[in-house]
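User: Here's a chain of 116 residues. Predict its fold as tokens.
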Amino acid sequence: WLANIEVLKKSRKNERAAFTKACNRVEELIALEDVDICELEAELNVFKGKVDRLENTHSNILELLPEKDYDAEFEIVEDFRDKAIRIETKARRRINGQQNVLKDKGYCFKCLKAGP
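Assistant: Prediction complete.
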């Protein structure tokens, strides 16, 4: 049991670092005035992959934790979940907003070429 949780905690540390790096990259792109939405969408997908892996590790750790440690760890897990939801929502709004701008300018979004 103890060995399992230590392995999971080490994995969690690396996954949290990867989560933060991917999150920061998405936030950087969101902040750009003329962001390449294809790049933003790709980075958002990378971020979602990191979120999924971290969520899985968090769940495995929560299952193994003694009851006295559960609540504190659960709060931390919830903070990561909330941050992921906020970033994904901001990115989706930015992507959708940029698509609307391109459509208004007569661009075909699928190919990003000027439309008829």
